[in-house]
Design goal:
Strand order of the largest sheet: 1-2
Number of helices: 16
Radius of gyration: 19 Å
Largest sheet: 2 strands, antiparallel
Structural class: mainly alpha
Distance between the termini: 48 Å
Helix content: over 70%
């Protein structure tokens, strides 16, 4: 599998290098200007189609895997074929800047529907009183799976606000999925996480710390959808992992999304209205001085936060009570970090 991952990383890096080398020929279409949105934190026009490199790296990895494990490679290719709607819609937004959030969400929902219809990946339980009986109903289970995949796709897009932030967290979470999959002897989620991590590593060579290329909606949505599918598959096929293990593993993007919705509603704004009040945004503003050596430090700090809870999730993976307890601990830590970021950015 190492060789397959190396091939995927090199393919992703090569595509990203080509995009950067030819930027003058396409930047008017693919550029992410610093103005036009309250969420923009960069100063220059940068290609935002890094998702092309990641998708290419993943597909090349799957093709390389055909030589050693054809059934597994075919399984992965089917999943990525199902993810084409969310990837293509994200890429269309990266180029045209004209695809509404609603249409992007519907594309993610369509990808999730295709996956759960074509494969055997689905949510079988949630370990919440009264909910498991509902999830036992096939239609409800399908809708809940769609909600989770589409929601996590958008959550990863939401945390894509600093050089390396989203891809770094993706790699960390993929490693955690690979570790747990290896412990349980499960090839499917291991391979899914492995090819995703490899492609993101190739992209990170050019994204962090200098930000020569951005992930874009295509890359962020794809990362979120892949990890949603991988964690659901891992929990489902294990037969022993708590469903809340998946929540704890992905707690940062999930919590950032829920918290952002709550604070917008609390001040009378639409929960989907973009702003620059995310945790990473506040820390960036506080550290923005050109002479500040910590200017790009918020992404590694959030990598560390995610890594800590990924490690914790691996230790408590079989206990719903402990997973819930550490979800609450994350909430307390996030609240303190957010207050600290607010104070620094004033």
């Amino acid at each position: 599998m190492f060789t397959v991952m190396l091939i995927g990383s090199l393919a992703s890096a090569l595509i990203c290098a080509l995009i950067i080398a030819t930027r003058d020929h396409h930047i008017r279409h693919t550029g992410d200007a610093s103005g036009g949105s309250v969420q923009k934190l960069h100063d220059n026009v940068v290609p935002r189609i890094g998702g092309v490199g990641i998708f290419t790296g993943i597909v090349v990895s799957c093709i390389a895997l055909l030589a050693s494990n054809k059934p597994l490679a075919v399984e992965l290719l089917i999943i990525f074929a199902c993810l084409l709607p969310v990837y293509i819609t994200g890429l269309a937004e990266d180029i045209t800047k004209a695809i509404s959030p609603t249409n992007r969400y519907l594309a993610a929902a369509l990808s999730a529907l295709l996956i759960t219809s074509i494969t055997d990946i689905r949510i079988l339980e949630v370990d919440v009183w009264g909910m498991d009986a509902l999830v036992a109903i096939p239609a409800v289970a399908t809708l809940f799976f769609i909600f989770c995949v589409a929601g996590l796709s958008h959550a990863f897009n939401l945390i894509d606000g600093q050089n390396g932030q989203c891809s770094g967290i993706t790699c960390i979470t993929c490693v955690a999925v690979m570790w747990e999959s290896a412990e349980l002897g499960m090839q499917g989620p291991f391979a899914l996480a492995a090819v995703c991590a490899a492609a993101n590593l190739g992209f990170l060579l050019f994204n962090y710390p200098l930000g020569k290329i951005f992930l874009g909606d295509a890359g962020a949505y794809l990362n979120g959808a892949i990890l949603a599918v991988a964690t659901v598959q891992l929990v489902q096929q294990s037969g022993s992992l708590s469903p809340w293990y998946a929540v704890l593993l992905l707690i940062y993007p999930i919590w950032e999304t829920l918290f952002s919705m709550w604070r917008r509603i609390a001040v009378g704004r639409s929960f989907s209205e973009p702003d620059a009040e995310h945790l990473h945004s506040l820390y960036y503003k506080a550290l923005k001085s050109p002479n500040n050596v910590w200017r790009n430090s918020s992404a590694p700090a959030l990598w560390l936060l995610s890594a800590v809870f990924c490690v914790v999730a691996s230790f408590v993976a079989h206990s719903t009570a402990l997973c819930l307890a550490f979800v609450a601990v994350f909430g307390l830590i996030y609240s303190q970090l957010y207050r600290h970021a607010q104070t620094l950015s004033r």
